[in-house]
Design brief:
Length: about 140
């Protein structure tokens, strides 16, 4: 017979796993340094950054993430779609984490993301992040 306390703890553990699953999925396949979570966007809060960021997004991100950022662009892999940028949670993917992901990219079985460190300057990545935040 299961003791009431044991059943409660098992239920609590299951709830914790179910609640954490969407958050962990945003990190699945990524190795992000802890310092990325606290890195601040030097372009934050400026209309000019959003405007220029939209241009960067249109040139570099739209083809996979789509014009609306939902991951359904013309070059998106339907089997492993790109991230839905409209669903990004700021507490899990703050600006510094997004910068790290865009700058470094990733390749792997859970989908790939090209790195943009050879195609963009850092300020343009920060600007793109400002624009991406408007897609929510």
């Amino acid at each position: 017979m299961v003791k009431p306390c044991s059943a409660f703890l098992a239920g609590l553990s299951l709830c914790a796993v179910l609640l954490a699953a969407p958050l962990l999925a945003q990190y699945e396949g990524w190795t992000v340094p802890a310092t990325a979570k606290t890195e601040k966007n030097p372009m934050a809060g400026t209309a000019d950054a959003v405007k220029k960021g939209k241009t960067v997004f249109e040139q570099k991100c739209r083809r996979c993430h789509g014009a609306d950022g939902k991951g359904k662009g013309p070059e998106a892999d339907p089997k492993i779609p790109p991230a839905d940028l409209t669903a990004i949670k700021n507490d899990v993917n703050p600006d510094g984490v997004l910068f790290y992901k865009i700058w470094n990219g990733r390749a792997g079985v859970k989908g790939s993301m090209p790195n943009f460190k050879v195609q963009l300057v850092k300020d343009d990545v920060w600007r793109a992040i400002e624009y991406i935040k408007t897609l929510k």
